[in-house]
Design goal:
By secondary structure, the chain is an alpha/beta fold. It has a single domain, classed as TIM Barrel (Alpha-Beta Barrel), CATH 3.20.20.140. The protein is built from eleven helices and ten strands. The strands form two sheets. Strands 3-4-5-6-7-8-9-10 form an eight-stranded parallel sheet. The chain has a two-stranded antiparallel ribbon with strand order 1-2. The N and C termini lie close together (8 Å). Bound molecules: zinc ion.
Length: 349
């Protein structure tokens, strides 16, 4: 694809990779996460419908998926705009907004937010996890799915001419379903034709990222252009993580800002803290993977916004970077993680 080659595709059009600056590689600015509502534990049922107020903020922070209004990020465009302006003032340049079909992608709103804030926004093509696939999607062939993904990159998404610049986040469950397997193959086919970046949401099992890379690779994808998201909650064992790192994809730690007692989607595991994430990033750098690390917050609920007492889109720039410096990660390496690696990944081959 000569016209895309060497460029990055934002919701406002093609830009030179050098224009991106600091980039969060996995965020959401508008989406609906109602698909993943978790009923509250017994005795707490009434809390799920309460308005968001100071007195229930701690409960919402600990039970983000059990509060119905908290899942409606799409209602907060004004607050998101204000926080993007703060992100820009803090040195931010670009946001990868990888909301896909199934969680209410809205490229028109993304375009407006980018125009009004000056932050580059890159939209995501493709499909979220199986239980958000429509019956039509589930019935499609790999070829039909590939056509949809390619159309979203070459012509526009959601019935507009606003184009996606990345495939994903492609949703995968554990175990992987047949429909998700087809979407992964379609992702690989689109990628091998367009040379575009890919980003994957793996199932919650340490074997999931290995299986996903295998499927992508067998279908012809370029693993070096692929981000595996959410490693914070997926591969806990250090030896296994280093085994995975050898495969050559980008390793994403994207739940910065999430510190929680119980992880409702996987109660058997403890969600790491920000300090533990920094230690993991440091370990991967020490093992020689500084060219493969990317980071983000994956904001997808209201409580993560500053408007509701959350950390907002500037948390990494304002709080995590100083802590990384304090823990011996050099500015040079931080620049690699925030600027150079995202730039390499997002540039079409
Ligand atoms: Zn996400």
């Amino acid at each position: 694809m000569a016209s895309l080659s060497g460029k990055v595709q934002t919701v406002l059009g093609l830009v030179e990779p050098s224009q991106l600056g600091c980039t969060m590689t996995h965020e959401h600015l508008t989406m609906d996460y109602t698909c993943c509502y978790v009923p509250p534990s017994s005795g707490q049922e009434t809390l799920s419908d309460e308005p968001i107020e100071m007195k229930n903020l701690f409960w919402i922070k600990q039970n983000p998926y059990s509060h119905k209004e908290n899942l409606l990020l799409y209602q907060e465009t004004d607050a998101v705009k204000e926080e993007l302006l703060q992100y820009k003032a803090a040195g931010g340049g670009t946001i990868v907004e990888n909301t896909t079909m199934g969680i209410s992608r809205d490229v028109k709103t993304l375009k407006k937010l980018s125009q009004e804030t000056g932050v580059h926004v890159i939209a995501g093509a493709g499909f979220y996890v199986h239980h958000t696939h429509s019956s039509e999607t589930q019935a499609m062939s790999v070829e039909q799915l590939t056509d949809i993904i390619m159309h979203e990159i070459l012509s526009g998404a959601d019935g507009t001419n606003i184009k996606c610049g990345v495939v994903g986040e492609i949703g995968c469950s554990w175990p992987l379903t047949e429909s998700e397997n087809k979407v992964l193959q379609a992702t690989a086919h689109a990628q091998s034709q367009l040379g575009c970046p890919i980003i994957i949401h793996p199932g919650r099992n340490s074997n999931a990222p290995f299986q996903i890379l295998r499927i992508l690779q067998e279908a012809g994808a370029d693993i070096s252009k692929t981000v595996i998201s959410h490693l914070d909650r997926t591969i806990f064992d250090e030896k296994k993580l280093l085994e995975f790192a050898k495969l050559g994809c980008y390793l994403e730690y994207d739940l910065f800002g999430t510190e929680i007692l119980n992880y409702h989607f996987n109660p058997d595991r403890d969600m790491p803290s920000d300090n533990e994430r920094i230690a993991r990033v440091r370990m991967l750098i020490d093992e020689g993977y500084e060219d493969r690390i990317v980071i983000a917050h994956d904001i997808h609920t209201k409580n993560r916004l500053m408007k509701y007492g959350g950390h907002g889109y500037s948390h990494i720039l304002k709080n995590i970077v100083p802590k990384m410096l304090l823990r011996g990660i050099s500015q040079n390496r931080i620049d690699k993680i925030l600027i150079d690696n995202p730039k390499q990944w997002l540039t079409f081959k």
